[in-house]
Amino acid sequence: MSSLPWQEVPLSWYLLLSAVLFSLGIVGFLIKRNLITVFMSIELMLNGVNLSFVTFAHQWHAVKGQIFVFFVMMVAAAEAAVGLAIIIAIFRVRATLAVDRIDLMKL
Amino acid sequence: MHLILFVVFAGFCLAGAINLLLQSHPINSALSLIVVMTSLAVLYLLLGAEFLAAAQVIVYAGAIMVLFTFVVMLLNASREERTLGSRAAGKIGFPAVVAILGVLATIILHTQDLGTARIGEGLTNVKGSTNIEELSGVLFSKLLLPFEVTSVLILIAILGAVALARHGHGETEEREERTAGK
After folding, report:
1. Cβ A54–B143 below 8 Å, yes or no?
2. Is the pTM of this model over 0.95?
3. Which terminus of chain A has a smaller tally of CB atoms within 10 A, N or C?
4. Pairing relationship of beta strands A8-10 and B116-118 according to DSSP bridges
5. Do A58 and B123 lie within an 8 Å CB cutoff?
6. CATH code for the structural domain at A5-94
């Protein structure tokens, strides 16, 4: 019944997808020069890790992985609210969003 | 069916993530991130995580991305300019990222006893229990204290966001008001 090859997907594909999403997040974090886009790349990394949590919850038939994703989502929501408020405060003082020009703490 | 859905939505995911990197305007990046998050919700559904799929759409694609697009429009963010810093970061960063991805991929591909996912396969395969029942059973008994602590965390985050984004930074603003009053 379920032995047809196109009815099932190996879990390693899901894990590979999550690894690729995480790496793309790192790339975005490094090459983007807009403060908001850098922040979005962090969200992309969080999502990639969440996918691997859900995959392993499926693999072990345990709820712990999904509960961990739930808590990550809550913390990400709090982080986004505070982070964007900080971005607004920075923009009000420096009037720019380019990370190269926000270099007060650079040696 | 599962394979088709996986390929289609994994493709959407990757296309959105790559588009996020290629676009130079933040609003385009934000919209492609919404595509990534919505297709991830479908993938959660395929893995038997119904509650998380709904939460992904509501919290991530809904609340967080609305906040992002709102801030992009509020600050009137313009196109980013490529600078020397981004090229240097690319030169050092890309080999490092490729190395990280290579290590992760080899570990994943050499893991032997990973299973497969089928449509309609629940989380714990107990008859008559749904995903939400299983999650809430643990969340409201064993993990009640962490769950309540997260609500306090959200409350503190809201207060912090309001305090940070409030107009002016306290002192200077009040001084201006006082001088204007005089």
Report:
1. no
2. no
3. C
4. antiparallel
5. yes
6. 1.10.287.3510
